[in-house]
Amino acid sequence: MALGQLIEKRKAKRVLTLDVLLAKELEYRMETENYQEGMRLPSERSLAEEFGVQRGTVRSALQILMDKGSIISKERSGYFVAPRRVAFDLNAYGSRKSLIEQMGKSTYVKLLTFEKIYVSEKMAQKTALQEDSQVYRIMRLRFAGSHPMSLERTHIRCDLVPGLREEDVHNKSIYATFRKKYRIYIARSEERVTAVYANGLESELLHTTRLHPVMRYEGLVYDRRNRLIEYFDDIILKEKVQFISDEVKTKKHMGR
Amino acid sequence: MVTQKDIEKETSSAQIQKSIIRKIENGDYLPGERIHSERTMAAMYGVSRMTVQYALRELVKKGYLYRVRGSGTFVQKNVVDRMDLNYLSERGNSGITAIVKNHGAKIASKVLTKGIITGKFFSYRLGLEKDTEVYVLHRIRYGNDEPIAVEYTYVPAQLFPEMDEIDFETISLYDYMDSISHMPKNFMQKLQIIEASEKERGYLELEKREPVYYTELIGFDEEGTIVEYTESYTRCDKFIYQFDAIV
Questions:
Q1: Nearest C-alpha of chain A: how many angstroms from B70?
Q2: CATH code 3.30.1490.100 for A86-251
Q3: Contact A15 B136 (CB under 8 A)
Q4: pLDDT tens figures, A136-178
Q5: What is the ipTM of this complex?
Q6: What is the pLDDT of residues B87-120, one digit of tens each?
Q7: How far apart, in Å, are the Cα atoms of A61 and each of A50, A166, B201?
Q8: In the Cβ-directed half-sphere of A197, how many Cα atoms lie within 13 Å?
Q9: Cβ count within 10 A of residue A45
């Protein structure tokens, strides 16, 4: 095992602690040996034996991986590969549905509210939507597998999609409706990702606790004619997603 | 004597403060806007009015809010000024040093550890042959004397022979890379929001459970050679991650 060699290096230099080195070794293994989500890791004891380190070092290495969210522990039964995150592309905006389905999970959205509101001064300042103009405010809860993943809230300009109905957005792609019914073709978006603490409603819908840190994903979406179409403001369970970008076309060496 | 009740008050107040700060930063509360009344907030957070009052007093002290007698509590103007954390942006940001400097803040670094190692994981990430030497550079980055990020950087040792001699507390890594024509120009990146672990919380001087941006980044120089792999933990309250996407 290469760790023996790493230990030698460490003795010479003391650059990284053993638990960090072991965590990285395990990360490499999980990635290159294609560990599937839910797969069980070897026990603490067998890892300690294999790498010739103390149990405490193994535990500390596993803790590092748990902190990063790559593995989870289950009481009295060991450590398992954590569920994979849905990967959103930083450079390409697209359907959440197909991204989740690509991972082999089913997904659907449950319509929570559908209403017509006037844009407040505050929202106008934040979003470049016209103050006092009308927007459809739509709130949907997205499930990945059987668990809620995100609360998707959007505001769509009424003048561009007159007569939009609940049936158009209930467990349906809003963008498909845009295309088919209104000939609106989404072209680009300006987005931001921040961390917030879930409020009462958000935590209840997402089955988490109040003030639990969650991801807020906001964006202004434009069509091919460069018209602002919608402002979305999603609350996502941060454990469920990640954003990735392949700036360079060669895809090797960056595992997910 | 400190009672259990005091402790509870203390923690829920801290949470309320944080929640209000987030609202200010997210623009849910705009500069100059009156925030919810104490009574509303007490109901919203499910705490006593005393706790809310305590939280508001603290935020007034910290400069986030101000009070107007008889009319309420307001958001201070110009408290939010988060830096745009996007290495890939076309605005030409490259590296936290440039971002912080462009923002007019003072940047400083503390080296946590540095030196040569080998390891499968690192050579794999850097696209090197197994057991090729990798130079480790772990740093805490400070903006205006406050910790803003921890960066765990790994570079191919062979490409950067002077790593050991350079004082990375005063010289930026990208400046050094640039000086020998191995400046990263293209990046592959992974962004997550996670709760910082105890170690990173310590470096970043954060409280328990506070979320941070976690990024993994592979940098390629002009020739397409991988010159860097960095894992970083960046404070969400100091930065904002913005990007443009096309369909």
A1: 24
A2: no
A3: yes
A4: 999 999 999 889 999 999 999 999 999 999 998 887 888 989 9
A5: 0.89
A6: 554 444 467 777 776 666 778 899 999 999 999 9
A7: 14, 50, 17
A8: 21
A9: 10
User: Could you tell me the CA-to-CA distances from A50 to A58, A175, A201 in Å, in that order?
Assistant: 11, 52, 48
A155 and A174 in contact (C-beta within 8 Å)?
no
pLDDT digits (tens, 9 = 90+) for B12-65: 888 888 888 888 877 788 877 889 889 998 988 888 999 999 899 888 877 788
Q: What CA–CA distance (Å, rounded) separates A205 from A124?
A: 27
Choosing among 3.10.580.10, 3.10.20.30, 1.10.10.10, 3.40.1390.20, the CATH entry for A3-81 is: 1.10.10.10
Domains annotated for chain B, with CATH where assigned, are 4-75 (1.10.10.10), 83-240 (3.40.1410.10)
Backbone angles phi, psi at B100, to 5 degrees: -65, -40
Residue in A84, A126, A190, A197 to test binding to B, most B beta-carbons within 10 Å: A197
Instruction: Indicate the domain borders of chain A.
Output: 3-81, 86-251
User: CA nearest A145: which of A95, A88, A174, A103?
Assistant: A103
Burial of A163 (0-12, 13-18, 19+ CB in 10 A): exposed
Specify the pTM: 0.81
Report the residue of B121, B129, B218, B235 to disrupt the A interface, i.e. the one with the largest count of A CBs within 10 Å.
B121
A253 neighbourhood in chain B, CB within 8 Å? 124-127, 218, 226
Out of B22, B27, B214, name the one closest to residue A126 (CB): B27
Which among B194, B195, B218 is the nearest to A253, CB-wise?
B218
C-alpha separations of B70 from A172, A240, B73 in Å: 50, 45, 9
